[in-house]
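Appendix B, record 7
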Amino acid sequence: MNWEEFSAAVPELAELAETRLRKDELCLLGTLRKDGSPRISPCEIDFAAGRLFLGMMWRSRKALDLFRDPRIVVHSVPSDKTNPGGDVKLYGRAIDELEPDVRRAFQDAIRARIDWAPREPNHHVFSLDVESASYVRFGDDPTVLVWDGVRGLRSMPFPDVE
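Structure tokens (predicted):
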């Protein structure tokens, strides 16, 4: 489901994720290399047109990974070992956005955020089709939320770590 659908289905988790990702303006992106091994890369993130956008340089390794295998994980950038903003993980598939109106919405969003946008057609625009998600926060108010389309949203017990 696109970001708008995910936000409607699981607003409490989507709000935590969007707040964190908008604040950081960056995520860690997990893709699969040609040989099946994992690749992790930084990636800027934008929200517009009901989508969570991932813009990429033309023919970047992470973009080529996604053309081969669209499975993806988006992970928030930890601030430090205590990570007071919580850990967001979004799993799903990357959608190659080719429609001019959707690409324009991405360009408008990035221009509003950093006063610059890539020129067409020399960049890739993907959006995330969310299949499952989680949020974990440590500290005084530990929280574990997990969601998938089959079992729905669940609050999990925080594991005791001694």
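Remarks on this record: The CA atoms of residues 56 and 124 lie 5 Å apart. The helical segments are 3-9, 11-24, 61-68, 100-114.
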